[in-house]
Amino acid sequence: MPVTDELMACFKEKFGSEGDIRVYFAPGRVNLIGEHTDYNGGHVFPCALSMGNYGVARKRNDKTVRWYNMTYPDNGIITADITGLSPEDNGLWYDYQLGVLWAFMQKGYEIPCGYDMVMISDMPAGAGLSASASIEELAAVIARDLFSIDVTMSECAVIGQYSENNFNGMKCGIMDQFASAMGKKNNAIFLDTDTLDYEYVPLNLKAEKIVITNSNVKHQLAGSAYNERRRQCEEALKDLQAVTDIKSLGDLTDDEFDSLAGNIKDPVSRKRAKHAVYENTRTIKAVSALRSGDIEAFGKLMNESHISLRDDYETSCSEIDVLAEEAWKINGVIGSRITGGGFGGCTVSIVKNDAIEEFKERISSVYREKTGLEAAFYIADAADGARRLL
Length: 390
Known about the structure:
The protein is α+β, with helices and mostly antiparallel strands. It has a domain of 204 residues: Ribosomal Protein S5, domain 2 (2-Layer Sandwich), CATH 3.30.230. It starts with a helix and ends with a strand. β7 and β8 form a beta hairpin.
């Protein structure tokens, strides 16, 4: 049975079959290169995935929301009064839904009534594929459509980020929400996170595919080392702003950073800032390489990105390093790196079509031997962004 049929059947069972029932989808994302640059004024290069969160919704006549998640049935039906929302985070899926409604109202938009909603996910949670942003953009596209709110999808991305920053306490950048909201089939998004200027870049992978490898190591980012990395970059920026006129770390070239780096007092913050600056440069170079058809250069920059995230930004972990470093040894692997916030999650690799089976077999075997864990693999299809389906 198609997932939308399953959702509709569950919705009618939980909430009844009458009225105007609508179906929505919001994708997860994979970032090809440009990690931890989005809150440092740099560039990113993600694409939306065909995996994500589906939702079926119908307006109510009161100020109550009732939500049920088929992925987490033990949570039961979640009920909330939208007139009494305030920032909180229990680390559960519905906090991201509540946060978006709160953010719409904080931004001055009217949420005139509540709604009933059933959702389901076909993407792994805690894998660094941005399940949270997918939930946020699902909530945003539902509110936008049900209540005829006059916002663009890029504004929905900004609302999603605002909610995660201020309702959930996770100081993420804009990349995840932007990719989920603005994805385009067969394209990645080259986004300047400082200005939100963006271009769609065709992937044009003729003999290769994007393979996501899930370490099955779960990461928890809110209130953790992720926020610490952001604070360290802010400290580095403040030190640099004392000696040069810049708005963000993304304003610097590699050479400019090298000449100024001694002004950053804390050596750890200096390493974090070096990654942010060099990763921004790598991302710009990688997109240029892809446009010119130089996939090998793109892959080399992916590998360099992982090394920087491992050594300078320290957001990798031993399990992820096994996946990336083993991939580098396989003929037919163009590049491989950690993707997402880090501390677990997934790698993203570009693999030649005729090497994919060997890639899966060798990575599975070595990963099991070295970690005792099982890896999971997904072929990534660049897909369209959050939208109403029916």
